[in-house]
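Quick sanity check, Leucine-rich repeat extensin-like protein 4:
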Amino acid sequence: MSFRNTIISDPLGITNTWVGSDICNYKGFYCDNPPDNISATTLASIDFNGFQLSAPTLDGFIDQLPDLALFHANSNNFSGIVSPKIANLQYLYELDISNNNFSGPFPTAVLTMNSLLFLDIRYNSFTGSVPPQIFEQTLEVLFINNNNFIQKLPDNLGATRALYLTLANNRFTGPIPKSIGSASSSLKEVLLLNNLITGCIPYELGFLRDATLFDAGNNLLTGPLPCSLGCLDKMEVLNFAGNLLYGKLPEVLCELGNLVNLSLSNNYFTSVGPMCRKLIENGVLDLRKNCIQHLADQRTAEECALFFGNPRSCPHPATFSLLPCKVPPKSKGHLVSDNAAFLKHRL
């Protein structure tokens, strides 16, 4: 009732159901038996998704519900900061406050919540930096996209055990850490698009053998595509559009059997082989606005000359022709020769 009094807008009339002594009948509230007393009944879950409630704070509300296991409040108008008192909720394993008006720093209270598996704070106004420790938690889902985080991608990014990792639409800088290859046993979807990420694509990215989606579009990545990407045999959607990538597309990448969308438009690639051309014909590969002669809808010669007039290079160039997996025999014959020729030309 104290929380109800802080609500300043309730267009759907949700709080009209919050009457009487049985909270378990209130809309959005769900009861269950607490883990330490199966004969009792307690408030175990709150689901406010889409309720369009407005309140200046949640402080003094969910942190006062010691048995709470799930709190979902997507698409409301809650604001303020996330109270550090939520760290006392020992059973909370899903926290979703996405698409609200929360602000302030990253809610560091979650770093001590050992039961938390699902954290979704996207589409808010959090600022500052994300503590690297969050990538060492037992989280299975980490959505922090569409905020105002400004920092270098932490070196321990690959320590994450998350299945779904979304950092898009912030202002992350620096290169994709090589440690990302250490997350090979967990990561399935990674969204890094619309940041300020620089550097070359690490060879270790090819270790993500279970990943089905990797999106790093609209950043400042440069260099060639490493052949190790040809090991991503479960990949369905791969996006590097809108970067500063160049060179020849590795044919082994275009031979991945599960690809439904390979987006490489708005880069500076100069050569494409027969397997990749087949993907273009099938509508899988998008290579518009590159520097490939005799291919439709490419950059002008002036744009390409201006780009290549500024020499670029990547550290450890030999790694771009390495494969950390077995590939079909038809791919083995041209991998080394194509990339060796490219590397010789660049050097």
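Posting the structure with no commentary besides this: Confidence is low (pLDDT under 50) at residues 331-347.
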